[in-house]
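Field guide to reading this record: the first block holds the primary sequence, the second block holds the structure written as discrete tokens, and the final block holds curator observations. Each block starts with its own label. This record concerns Jacalin-type lectin domain-containing protein, catalogued under organism Chenopodium quinoa.

BLOCK 1 — SEQUENCE
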Amino acid sequence: MQAIEKHGSFGSNSPPNWNVILEERARIKEIIIHYGFIVDSIGFLLEDSNGRTTAKLFGGRGGACSKITLKPDEYITRISGRCGIYAHSYDHVIASLRIHTNLCEGGYGPYGLEKDVRHSCSFSTPDSGGDDGTIVKIYGRHDVNYLQSIGVCFNKVM
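BLOCK 2 — STRUCTURE
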């Protein structure tokens, strides 16, 4: 038996306006993060079961750009970071983000300097559990400049 577990979204309380759904046998090949004082955007290079790739980017293109290239047997197990209110826009934002995988448990990152962020708090999803569950959806909210929220859904084996 399987159940979908939702974790988040963290950051803005406004409804999500983006998502990435991983179909069966699809995978995330690459994660792209633009960041500076905070996280400007997150993007994904997705590979479907036929080997076709699609790129998606959510948010702005400011700041530095880092790419995480996942190995063929590597997958995201959880996300963590900090969120708060950005002093330059007065919006809720993702101040920093770390991507944890089965091959990098400590996580890639953090991305974002958490600078000029007020009322910040940390967030972390539980580990997806590997064989017991996988991330099937990543979602959140963005505007033209910043990543405002992020969350995940796990497909848990009961």
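BLOCK 3 — OBSERVATIONS
The mean pLDDT is 93.
The domain at 2-157 is CATH 2.100.10.30 (Vitelline Membrane Outer Layer Protein I, subunit A).
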